[in-house]
From TrEMBL, chain A:
SUPFAM superfamilies: Class II aaRS and biotin synthetases. GO terms for cellular component: cytosol. This is EF-P lysine aminoacylase GenX. It comes from the Bacteria. Residues 18-330 form the Aminoacyl-transfer RNA synthetases class-II family profile domain. It comes from Allochromatium humboldtianum. GO terms for molecular function: ATP binding; lysine-tRNA ligase activity; tRNA binding. GO terms for biological process: lysyl-tRNA aminoacylation. Keywords: ATP-binding, Ligase, Nucleotide-binding.
TrEMBL record, chain B:
The lineage of its organism: Bacteria, Pseudomonadati, Pseudomonadota, Gammaproteobacteria, Chromatiales. The modification N6-(3,6-diaminohexanoyl)-5-hydroxylysine is found at K34. It is found in: Cytoplasm. Its main location: cytoplasm. Residues 69-123 form the Translation elongation factor P/YeiP central domain. Coiled coil: none annotated. Keywords: Cytoplasm, Elongation factor, Hydroxylation, Protein biosynthesis. This is Elongation factor P. Belongs to the elongation factor P family. Pfam families: EFP, EFP_N, Elong-fact-P_C. Residues 131-186 form the Elongation factor P C-terminal domain. Involved in peptide bond synthesis. Alleviates ribosome stalling that occurs when 3 or more consecutive Pro residues or the sequence PPG is present in a protein, possibly by augmenting the peptidyl transferase activity of the ribosome. Modification of Lys-34 is required for alleviation.
């Protein structure tokens, strides 16, 4: 698709960015060593895949004796399922730095192969985990006094657009987007979450985390497939947070769902939606469900995009500037 | 009928929208952490030149426009339409004044132009980047001034008016950059 020119053997990132990544990883490892969180490694390939309709898995095939007929193995979109199996086995607090893969994602802040830092804190709630994320990011950016704020999803939409995301119909969300100056929306057919996503990314996100760490939290339950749900101010909210700095979404965390039956129901609902949309229906991760059935401790977990953290640390606008070789040169 | 998925969007891709052909100027992929992905594009209407914005759900498909560029030789203008000939097939085609547009200011018989065809008919015409044209009228410059500082207007054989240095005179040939409409140099016959 893209022409390859003779200069394409060169790295996309300059030497400063490549060194900054090495420094960052060393700092992260020191941070977790000090706080007693164990580094783990889990497989990139899996027989099962994420069911979330918003994520597309890449797959490959294995050809070894004794493995049976060829069938797809999926590249992880996050190490979540394997790490939760470790948690159910009683491993305690763990973290991982790894490559994850998401098909169909390419842009200024998206690359189909990227680096995640993911960690889990058994016995913690998501509020306490937000504090730890804040401390780690301040350290990584070398800005120890950077202000930290928490903002609920509901308040963001109320203050920013004058609407309640729990009680606004699709037609009104469309009108709000038009009034906010978004053009070319005719013919765009979205459900409520789709319109909320459009408003969040196009009208609200850029003002989040200006000169500070903004934790956006308590999402509509329909936007958090793997998190616990509780009631807050007469509406059900998902215990989910996202961290923004300079308008960039940097991390996504949950008060983790530990109920096997509820998890299976959500997987099946995802697959039903995928069928409706004509998208692939990958196998459900039965090992994860077995682990939840066995019993996973209450915990909070978060995934943080390391490439984006490096973008912020080095002050660049495009993800390619922190990658040794972007996919077009891979 | 061919279709493109939003995954194939990139600058220069030609798509159909509401019956008109468009070219993608800019494509931005937008996706929240766990939700709906979008492609926000700026697209140019190839008939009117107008640039508009459009938002697509990622994964949606859109009809491809049968638009492609081909080099053609400009033959003549019959007073109403402009006649071009394909360099290899020698097939001749006519373009309307609207399709020729600004290129009319610059092209002369036998010039090779980039003609954009839509469903096989000329949609727009781009002149060569540089053309050599004769000056049909310009004020005599002040003798001795060779700096070219202020310049003066000169009318060319195609009717276009460009600013030229004071030392350039009527009947001389000059080279012009059609992208900027600026004088480049004198040309010796």
């Amino acid at each position: 698709m893209t022409e390859v020119s003779s200069a394409d053997w060169r790295p996309n990132a300059d030497l400063t960015a490549i060194r900054a990544r090495a420094e960052l990883y060393a700092e992260i490892r020191a941070f977790f060593r000090e706080s007693g969180v164990l580094e783990v490694e889990t497989p990139i390939l899996s027989r099962a895949a994420v069911t979330d309709p918003a994520l597309a898995s890449l797959s490959t095939q294995l050809d070894i004796a004794g493995f049976g007929p060829k069938r797809p193995l999926y590249l992880q979109t996050s190490p979540e399922f394997a790490m939760k199996r470790l948690l159910a086995a009683g491993i305690g607090p763990i973290y991982q730095i790894c490559k994850v893969f998401r098909d169909e994602e390419r842009g200024r802040r998206h690359h189909p192969e990227f680096s995640l830092l993911e960690w889990y804190r058994p016995g913690w709630d998501y509020g306490r985990l937000m504090d730890e994320v804040g401390a780690l990011v301040r350290l990584a950016l070398n800005r120890p006094t950077m202000p930290i704020e928490r903002l609920t999803y509901r308040d963001l939409f109320r203050d920013g657009l004058g609407l309640d995301p729990w009680h606004t119909e699709v037609d009104q969300l469309r009108r709000t987007a038009e009034r906010a100056g978004l053009r070319g929306l005719d013919g765009l057919d979205l459900d409520r979450d789709g319109w909320l996503d459009l408003l969040l990314t196009q009208c609200l996100e850029s003002r989040l985390g200006r000169g500070r760490l903004t934790f956006l939290c308590d999402y509509p339950p329909s936007q958090a497939a793997l998190s616990r749900v509780r009631t807050s101010g007469e509406v059900p909210v998902a215990e989910r947070f996202e961290l923004y700095i300079d308008g960039i979404e940097l991390a996504n965390g949950f008060g983790e769902l530990v109920d096997a039956r509820e998890q299976r129901a959500r997987f099946q609902a995802d697959l039903a939606l995928r069928r409706e949309q004509g998208r692939p229906e990958p196998p459900i991760d039965e090992s994860l469900l077995d682990a939840l059935e066995h019993g996973m401790p209450d915990c909070a977990g978060v995934a943080l995009g390391l490439d984006r953290l490096l973008m912020i640390a080095t002050g660049v606008e495009h993800i390619d500037a922190v990658l040794t070789f972007a996919i077009e040169r891979a | 009928m061919a279709f493109y998925s939003t995954n194939e969007f990139k600058g220069g891709l030609k798509i159909m929208l509401d019956g008109d052909p468009y070219s993608i100027v800019e494509n931005e992929f937008v996706k929240p952490g766990k939700g709906q992905a979008f492609n926000r594009v700026r697209i140019r209407n190839l008939k009117t030149g107008r640039v508009i914005e459009k938002t697509f759900k990622s994964g949606d498909t859109v009809e491809a426009a049968d638009v492609h560029d081909t080099d053609m030789q400009y033959l003549y203008n019959d007073g109403e339409e402009w006649h071009f000939m394909h360099q290899e097939s020698f097939e001749q085609m006519t373009a309307t004044a609207a399709a020729v547009g600004e290129a009319a200011k610059w092209i002369k018989e036998n010039d090779i132009c980039k003609v954009t065809l839509w469903n096989g008919a000329p949609l727009s015409v781009e002149p060569p980047n540089f053309v050599v044209l004769k000056i049909t009228e310009t004020d005599p410059g002040v003798r001795g001034d060779t700096s070219g500082g202020g310049g003066k207007p000169a009318t060319l054989e195609t009717g276009a008016v460009v600013r030229v240095p004071l030392f350039v005179q009527t009947d001389e040939l000059i080279k012009v950059d059609t992208r900027t409409g600026e004088y480049v140099s004198r040309v010796k016959e």
